[in-house]
Structures are given as structure tokens and as C-alpha cells.
Write a structure and sequence with these properties.
about 500 residues, FAD/NAD(P)-binding domain, nine-stranded mixed β-sheet, five-stranded parallel β-sheet
Length: about 500
């Protein structure tokens, strides 16, 4: 799993109960959907601001979000641990510079205990509908359990990587072998001695492949587009450093600041086409040449697009795994699936005992994870069909008192997701406090402010590497980039530092 892909299966959301058993709960001040990093961080900052009437709805039986669900072999973050954690809750005991999913999940669970958050969480409550009641000025969340939870303000913190999806491959339903998705790993399946196919060579796949190649009798990797891969400076954390961080917390803050600034400088290579871009490409080519000696394989793994256009991957063991005797890379396009396996464009059927789909998620720029209905009965998924839009990525016109985390155009390409998330959370706290302090019925961003913001964002995006011509999940089918933020994390934090009331319509209670 990456800055974005345990030994148990993710919990299945509870089944729907009959409509006659609907149970309405007392309205809270703030209703939060999701108990992952975003939802829990929002609850912490609200609590610290004196707002404690909070309800968090979690579809599973435990916290963790994407780090709970993505527990495939090798799952880890591609951002240093000291940066991929909250600045207001730093962990001095990270075991290594880049932590695995189990350790990150442990950090999340420990955070729940430290800030006494479990009292806010309602587990096994999968939201099936979120609707705004204009008469009362509250949001109502209906769950599969038949419960209705309400809040004066609502926060969608379910995350952009919350709903996994199998790819749209012809004949996928005919395949008789075992199927596994990277976001719903089957820990009961024994890969030892099996013929295994892996579809995808993205952020999750390059972590899974080095682990599977150890067990499978034959591993076949299907690549559509090669990625830029750079080295991963991963080291064990020495005991003296942990002791120093515990004794002098300012030393850890200083390291975090240094990591932040180092990643900020990477924006010059990743976001825009500059001399730094050429240096980054040289690093990627050097890493490939150093680890892959076979010229033909190296050619197959060499990207033909500018670095940064797609997500840059970080790995030391992906290239070596592809060169193991029991591993084979296939670059022919997949035409369809059969009962026994996968057929590729040159007419060969590749037969497998199991196929692993490391094919990504239903990213929110093309819809919403559940129906969201705003003022006048408008539906957010319909409005977002051709690309999501929001004001500062966090508010949407026509959806009063609703706040998003990792909303449209808030994706980082070079820095920690949690840096951006902290800016969003602080903005949400400002918004909720404004509703309470001014006793507002609704706080709703003006449509013209949202349009002006998005017009500027898209103009800036047109000059970035993400929009330079390659096909990626950053873009909609129409080529609209509704995912990434075209600037430094520092710029993003600056835009989120103030809540401009002139851009909002305020209606008193």
C-alpha cells in the first residue's frame, strides 16, 4: 500500500435489515463517515477545539481504513514513516524509515486509544445514503443496518482508496480458478506451488510481486504500461534514534521538517517539466540499468512518457523479482479471460490456478461511494460524472455543511498525503466552528466561487506533467484532471489557512 496499497480478511459490512426496523439516532454536531486516518484525525482536532458531540460511522468492525483493508503481502508506504504520520501525534518508535502496513495500522489503533476516540465510533455501519434535510439543516446518513444517524455538519472521510474494483475484462466471469484482489486479500489461499498470474504493475503490484515469487511455482506478470521506478532508501531505525525522539521530541520534529522540505523540492521534478525532471529520469534509468542486465527486459520496462505523468513507484526488489527463474513478464495486451486463464493479443492462453488483480480502486473523481443528495434533491454522483469539482477540494456548491477529505484536486504527487490531510482537517474545524459560533443553519460555498477556483486549478494543471499526454487514473475519460493539486504542499496549506466567508452563503438558524 502506498501514499495513497495484518493477517486477516477485511470485515464484510453488515447486511441490510428491513426498512421497517429503521432506527433514528439523536443528531450530533458533526457526523463523520470513515474511521481511517482522515476521519480519526478530524475527530481529534474537533475534540481539541472543544467540539465533542461527534459520531463516526465505520463500515467495518475495526478502525484503519485503507491500512486495514490493504493487508496483502509486502504492503507498505512509499513515504517515510516520520512524514506519513500526523504532526500532532508523532511516533518515536517507527521500526524503519518506510513502515509496513501492519505497523501503520498499529499506529492508527494506538491513536484511537491515546485520544479516547472509540466512544465516538459506531462500527459495522456501512453508509448507503447521505442526504441533506433543508428544513432542519442537518445531514442524515442511512446505513445498511437500517439506522439513521444525523449531524449538523457532515464529513466524508471514507478516503479515495476505499472501494476496490475488478477490471472490466471480457470473460472475467468465466474464469474458474481462484481470484484475489489486492484490496481484499485472501490469507487462507496457499500460493505455494501454484501457477499465479498478476494483472497490474502499479503501486500495489510492485509490492506483491516480490512476495509471490517466493512461493509460486510460476508467476506471470501482465504489464500494460511500464512505470518509472526509483530506489527506496529503507533502513532499520537504530535504538539510539528512538531514544532521542522519546527524550527530545523536537529532534523528531526537526527530522520531519527536513523530510518535508526534501519532498517539497521533488515537486520541481514531478509536477512540472524542468531540469529536475531530467535528473529524476536519469535516476530511474540508472536504477533500471543497475538492476536489470538483460537489454530486452530493460527495454520492456522502460517508460516512454515523461516522469511524473503517472505515479512514480519506489522499490528495491521489484526488478529483481521479475528476473527470478519462475517469473515471466508479459507485455502483450489482454484480450479476454477464459475458464482456465488469460488470453493475450498474440493468441496465447496463459493458464493459472490463481489470478491476482492489482488493478486499483473506484476513485472518487468519477462518482461517490454512496448516494449523496444535497439541496433541492441534487445528486453528487450525477454532478461528478464528467469529473469532480469542489471549492478548495473541500466544499461543493449545493451541499451545505458538507466537508470532504481528499476531495477533488487535493492529491499529492510528491509529498505525504497526511500533510495535505492536516490542512483539510484544520479547515473543517474552522468551518464547523463558524457554523456553531454564528449559529448558522447552513454554510454553503457559492457556485461562482467554486467555478472560479476550478477554472484557475485547471489552467495550472494544463502545464503539469500529469496532463502531458499519458493515460493515468488521475484523468477522467474526457481528460479532465480532477485528482491532483498543481503545486507545492506549502501552497496548498496556504490556500487552506483561511476560511473566506465572502465565498460562502451564510443562513442563520
Amino acid at each position: 500500500m502506498t501514499n495513497a496499497t495484518p493477517s486477516r480478511k477485511p470485515k464484510t459490512p453488515a447486511k441490510k435489515t428491513p426498512a421497517t426496523s429503521v432506527k433514528k439516532h439523536k443528531p450530533a454536531t458533526v457526523l463523520i463517515v470513515g474511521a481511517g486516518f482522515a476521519g480519526l484525525g478530524t475527530a481529534i482536532r474537533l475534540q481539541q477545539a472543544g467540539i465533542k458531540d461527534i459520531v463516526i460511522l465505520e463500515r467495518a468492525g475495526e478502525v484503519g481504513g485503507t491500512w486495514r483493508d490493504n493487508n496483502y503481502p509486502g504492503a507498505a508506504c512509499d513515504i517515510p514513516s516520520n512524514l506519513y504520520s500526523y504532526s500532532f501525534d508523532q511516533n518515536p518508535d517507527w521500526s524503519r524509515s518506510f513502515s509496513g502496513s501492519e505497523e501503520i495500522l498499529g499506529y492508527i489503533k494506538a491513536m484511537v486509544k491515546r485520544f479516547d476516540l472509540e466512544k465516538y465510533i459506531r462500527f459495522n455501519q456501512n453508509v448507503s445514503d447521505l442526504a441533506f434535510d433543508e428544513d432542519q439543516g442537518i445531514w442524515n446518513a442511512t446505513t445498511d443496518q437500517g439506522d439513521v444517524f444525523s449531524g449538523r455538519a457532515a464529513v466524508m472521510a471514507q478516503g479515495p482508496l476505499s472501494n476496490a474494483s475488478f477490471p472490466d475484462i471480457s470473460g472475467i466471469e468465466k474464469y474458474q480458478g481462484h481470484k484475489v484482489h489486492s484490496a481484499a486479500w485472501d490469507h487462507d489461499y496457499d500460493f505455494r506451488g501454484k501457477k499465479v498470474g498478476v494483472i497490474g504493475t502499479g503501486a500495489s503490484a510492485i509490492q506483491i510481486i516480490p512476495e509471490l515469487v517466493k512461493d509460486a511455482s510460476k508467476l506471470t506478470v501482465f504489464q500494460r504500461t511500464p512505470a518509472w521506478v526509483v530506489p527506496r532508501p529503507d533502513f532499520d531505525t537504530p535504538d539510539w534514534q528512538k531514544a532521542l525522539f522519546r527524550k527530545v521530541p523536537a529532534s523528531q520534529s526537526a527530522l520531519r521538517k527536513g523530510l518535508y522540505l526534501a519532498h517539497e523540492s521533488m515537486a520541481l521534478a514531478v509536477i512540472w517539466n524542468s531540469p529536475m525532471t531530467r535528473l529524476a529520469e536519469r535516476l530511474g534509468r540508472w536504477h533500471l540499468k543497475r538492476q536489470v542486465k538483460d537489454r530486452w527486459l530493460r527495454r520492456q520496462l522502460t517508460p516512454d512518457y515523461r516522469i511524473g505523468c503517472k505515479r512514480i513507484l519506489v522499490s528495491n526488489d521489484y526488478y529483481p523479482a521479475l528476473q527470478q527463474p519462475n517469473c515471466k513478464l508479459i507485455t502483450w495486451p489482454i484480450t479476454r479471460m477464459s475458464e482456465n486463464g488469460i488470453l493475450t493479443a498474440e493468441g496465447i492462453e496463459h493458464q493459472f490456478d490463481c489470478i491476482v488483480f492489482a488493478t486499483g480502486f473506484d476513485v472518487g473523481h468519477s462518482g461517490t461511494p454512496f448516494p449523496v443528495r444535497g439541496a433541492g434533491g441534487r445528486k453528487l454522483d450525477e454532478e461528478w460524472k464528467r469529473g469532480a469539482q469542489a471549492y478548495k477540494s473541500i466544499n461543493v456548491a449545493g451541499y451545505p455543511n458538507l466537508f470532504l477529505t481528499f476531495g477533488p484536486n487535493s492529491g499529492p504527487g510528491h509529498n505525504s498525503a497526511l500533510v495535505y490531510m492536516e490542512s483539510q482537517i484544520d479547515y473543517i474545524v474552522k468551518g464547523v466552528k463558524t457554523i456553531l459560533d454564528k449559529n448558522l443553519k447552513t454554510l454553503s460555498v457559492r457556485g461562482e466561487a467554486q467555478d472560479e477556483y476550478n477554472s484557475k486549478i485547471q489552467k495550472r494543471l494544463a502545464k503539469t506533467n500529469w496532463n502531458s499526454g499519458c493515460k493515468s487514473w488521475y484523468l477522467t475519460e474526457d481528460g479532465v484532471n480532477a485528482t491532483m493539486y498543481p503545486g507545492f504542499a506549502t501552497q496548498y496549506a496556504r490556500q487552506m489557512a483561511s476560511l473566506e466567508l465572502k465565498d460562502y452563503e451564510l443562513i442563520p438558524a
